[in-house]
Amino acid sequence: MIDSYAAAGVDTGEAGRGIAALVGALGRARLGRPSRSRLRSGHYASVLEIAPGLGLALSTDGVGSKLMIAEQAGKLATVGIDCVAMNVNDIVCVGAEPIAMLDYIAVPRANAAALEQVGIGLARGAELAGIEIPGGELAILPEQVHGLELSGAAVGTVALDAVVTGTAIRPGDALIGLPSSGFHSNGYTLVRGILGELALEHTDELLAPTVIYVAAILELLRSEVEVHGLAHITGDGLLNLRRLSETVGFEIDAPLPVPPICALVCEQGGLAPAEAYQVFNMGCGFIAVVPAADSERAVEQLARHHEGSRQIGQVTDRAGAITVPHHGIAL
Q1: Considering only Cβ atoms within 10 Å of each terminal Cβ, which end of the chain, N or C, has fewer?
Q2: Where do the domains of the chain lie, and which CATH numbers do they carry?
Q3: For 266, phi and psi rounded to 5 degrees?
């Protein structure tokens, strides 16, 4: 459990136990037919076989308490980008091409001006991700909801023999980091708890939309570079790498620069580096795992889309270990 996050109201240990209980209950469902699932639970997206050789990738996520800052500032035009990004970035992690997303919006009342701003962001996010948003749901819940809630569910397609699972990862593989734009849409309960009223002075930085990595990753997948794993660095920070493989370790010996807003929050909150790297992306929003021989080509391709992308480390043979030697971190 991360002490500062728990004090802010998010107990990661409790959350883990809750997820385990939920998944356990779902696992008791009896369908009367073989499962279509072709990817273990706990990856970034689910993959179901819908036709011979063809998989449907599914993911769902929301914007979280970043919305509270957006509402307080009266700036809702970018939160739709966050909603799209949090979903499509997960879809592409399994090698799938995102094709569509449905949004879910819950509000205490239907404010047309506010909803238009949300729609502007959703449309821009759809453009950046190359997807359609053909529909969604607006729920008016005055007794249940006291602010804006925005989430989505995305789908994509992938050939079943091209699913990127992480099982191909081997010690010596290169880790290529793609820069983030800040906190993206994770850890805002802790961010708000640390900054308090100071958050209003940094609204623009805190509302920088989550980067959409889809175009860059799809280009990489279609190139001659062999892609062994793809990780969207969201809540839990570097611990997200364990979703790819628990039989290897990951060493980040050249981390990307930490955005100033992230550094400010860590300083104000007195967060130790080990704690910060387990909550925030700390400047790295996405990681591609490729053979060492393909590292330069991968960096060249990814940097065309996301300036500052570079090799940040390598895969090790220390199963489950995630280290950042520069900060003395061993997770």
Answers
A1: N
A2: 1-34 (no CATH), 36-162 (3.30.1330.10), 174-330 (3.90.650.10)
A3: -65, -40
What is the identity of the amino acid at 319? A
Chain position carrying tokens 């136990």: 17
Q: List pLDDT tens digits, range 33-67.
A: 888 988 877 899 999 999 999 999 999 999 999 99
Contact between 212 and 125 under an 8 Å Cβ cutoff? The reply is yes
Contacts of 169 (CB under 8 A, 6+ apart): 228, 229, 244, 245, 248, 289, 315
**Which residues, at least 6 apart from 230, have a Cβ–Cβ distance to it below 8 Å?**
44, 92, 93, 94, 95, 164, 217, 244, 286, 287, 288, 289
Task: Round to whole Å and give the CA distance between 103 and 113.
Answer: 18
Determine the Cα–Cα distance for residues 174 and 293; give it in Å rounded to an integer.
Answer: 8
Res 194: pLDDT: 96
Tell me the average pLDDT across 239-255. Answer: 97
What pLDDT digit, counting tens, does each position of 124-159 carry? 999 999 999 999 999 999 999 999 999 999 999 999
Are 311 and 295 spatial neighbours (Cβ–Cβ below 8 Å)?
yes
CA angle 85, 123, 44 (to 5 degrees): 20
Residue tagged 């002075």 (tokens): 201
The answer on pLDDT for 3 being more than 90 is no
Q: Which two tokens stand for residue 48?
A: 């179901």
Residues near 208 by beta carbon (within 8 Å), at least 6 away in sequence = 78, 181, 182
Mean pLDDT throughout 191-205?
A: 95
Long-range contacts (CB closer than 8 Å, 24 or more residues apart) made by 130-134: 130/98, 130/214, 130/215, 131/84, 131/88, 131/98, 131/99, 131/100, 131/101, 132/99, 132/100, 132/101, 133/84, 133/100, 133/101, 133/102, 133/103, 134/100, 134/102
| pLDDT above 90 for 15 | no
- Asked whether the whole model's pTM tops 0.90, one would answer yes
Both tokens of residue 139?
A: 């729920």
**Cβ(309)–Cβ(256) below 8 Å:** no
